[in-house]
Structures are given as structure tokens and as C-alpha cells.
Specification:
single chain, 61 residues, alpha+beta, two-stranded antiparallel sheet, flat
């Protein structure tokens, strides 16, 4: 009767939709305007135990 942890649910949903489960957050700054925004980049793992969707994409390449 225990509820699943939210992190496990999020990982399962990310794997189902083929999205990286360990994205890297980058914060580029526009030098002209000074605005910064957070951009999530794929982890880029080559092993399925780290990130299945990144490993699948790297295998295709």
C-alpha cells in the first residue's frame, strides 16, 4: 500500500517518452541583454544503466 516515490515515477515517465533522465543544466548569458536562462542538455551516457534514452540515441549515431 506504499505509494511510489516521485523520483521513480518521473524516471519511468522520462524513459517511456525517450527523454534524458539525468539532464545537465547550463545557464548561458546573452552578452548583449544580460539575460540568463537555464537550458537542459542531454547527459550523453553510452550505458543503459545510466540513461537508457541517451544510450539508445548514442547507439544510433
Amino acid at each position: 500500500m506504499a505509494l511510489p516515490r516521485s523520483i521513480d515515477v518521473l524516471k519511468d515517465i522520462a524513459i517511456e517518452y525517450g527523454v534524458c533522465i539525468r539532464p545537465l543544466a547550463m545557464r548561458p548569458t546573452d552578452l548583449d541583454t544580460g539575460l540568463t536562462e537555464v537550458i537542459d542538455l542531454p547527459y550523453g551516457a553510452t550505458r543503459e544503466d545510466k540513461c537508457p534514452s541517451c544510450a539508445k540515441k548514442n547507439r544510433r549515431l
